[in-house]
Amino acid sequence: MPDNGLSSQTVAQAALSPIEASKRLAAYTAVDHHVKPEHTIIGIGSGMSLQSARKNPGILSRSDYALGSTVPYVVERIVQQGVEANKKRVFIPTGFQSKQLIVEASLNLGDVDEYPSIDVTIDGADEVDSNLNCIKGGGACHLREKVLAEAAKTFIVVADYRKNAELLGTNWAPGVPVEVVPFAYAKVLRQLRDVLGSPNATLRMAIKKAGPVVTDNGNFVIDAPFDQEKMQDPSKILTQIKLLTGVVEVGLFCGLAKAAYFGNQDGTVTVRREDGTTSQVTA
Ligand SMILES: O=C(CO)[C@H](O)[C@H](O)COP(=O)(O)O
């Protein structure tokens, strides 16, 4: 294997916690099933830099660090397919973090404006419901993530077992991420609270920076939790939020995923597909 930084010290390989092991299992299985030799344009979802992960190995086992900790294993598996398989491929990132991941892995970098038709995009999710609707945007990257999901012929979600839910909002408490232009944030916040029924909607504040989180697109993010009744029909609430002037994108991905791969603690992977079928796969 080439010395691209991934061969000898893969992400905390030796000491993976059960959750980390399940993320890797999901990612590896999804790559094995969906990244084939004929696929040349690949969308890479949000994932933290492998260099950062290696400098701070504990970061991957922090359960609160929901900022793209599964996708690095996708890249790791793709790299394992070898230099020959990857030299003709172009990899499209969903943001700054994902771009770093591609560059550090010595894979060819492209952009979606150059390659608007992607063979397969693989990304993580904050939660997935029984109909493969997803909440995304825990890392505030959901605008580009949705562009890459829609641009792909096949959009695949990878996650650990905690993200596998009947209903969105079961385990993911912060709510639906809503990217909004800064000028409109106060008006959109008020509408989410008073009109759309999310009284606890809040502007997402940065950690280690004073003030709000600013996305890769220069916008703010509001997290809007909705009750179970509203989350029964995510497409409806998606449409209602999207129609608020000033909203750029909503972190509800409805009808986009072809399949979701969930790594389980027992070493199996649950695969749920858009046709409603589910199977357990042993890696
Ligand atoms: O939507 C996302 C970022 O906007 C991520 O895909 C999501 O947060 C998944 O994180 P992890 O892989 O750590 O579970």
Automatic annotation (TrEMBL):
It catalyses: aldehydo-D-ribose 5-phosphate = D-ribulose 5-phosphate. Keywords: Isomerase. Belongs to the ribose 5-phosphate isomerase family. SUPFAM superfamilies: D-ribose-5-phosphate isomerase (RpiA), lid domain, NagB/RpiA/CoA transferase-like. InterPro entries: NagB/RpiA_transferase-like (IPR037171), Ribose5P_isomerase_type_A (IPR004788). GO terms for molecular function: ribose-5-phosphate isomerase activity. It comes from Leucocoprinus leucothites. Pathway: Carbohydrate degradation; pentose phosphate pathway; D-ribose 5-phosphate from D-ribulose 5-phosphate (non-oxidative stage): step 1/1. This is Ribose-5-phosphate isomerase. NCBIfam families: rpiA. The keyword Isomerase applies. Pfam families: Rib_5-P_isom_A.
